Amino acid sequence: MSATDPIIWQKSSFSGGGGENCVEVTLHKGEIVMRESDEPDSTIKTSRAKMSAFIAGVKNGEFDHLVN
């Protein structure tokens, strides 16, 4: 990711205001890239298939215990 290849980050509408409590995601060169809004230089990458499996688990409630 560079200045010559601009990234458009997306965050949930459920994120906190003022840029807090935000996990941001983008699709970049075929990979899903994620970062925390308060640590913008620290990113992780994953494949679309892995993100799809994770989202399916979230929708199924498999991670609810982490936030409740």
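the 2nd protein, sequnce then structure:
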Amino acid sequence: MENFRLDDMIKGWFVGGFAPTALSTEACEVAIKHYKAGDHESAHYHKVATEITAIVSGEVRMCGRTWGPGDIVVLKPGEITDFVAISDAVNVVVKLPGALNDKYVVD
């Protein structure tokens, strides 16, 4: 058995082909992301990975829509989204396959 702390991971990412990680794999990437109201990410897309975001708590805006607890948003390669935390929020994010350097910001 091994034991890790989410606080020791970078931006909530704890499974993937990076360090530190609880499980090193290129098969996928997994994170638990904590956001404060107003946190945001610029519009972007992935060329390789499908990104799945499950909203655990709070409200967020992605793809021009508002999402809340229980919503799951699946973005396929090439689909563009930005991100805004409307309130404090917690999301689980899974990227399949794990693909480092696969985030392309849209100007």
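The chain has no helices and ten strands. The longest strand covers residues 50-57.
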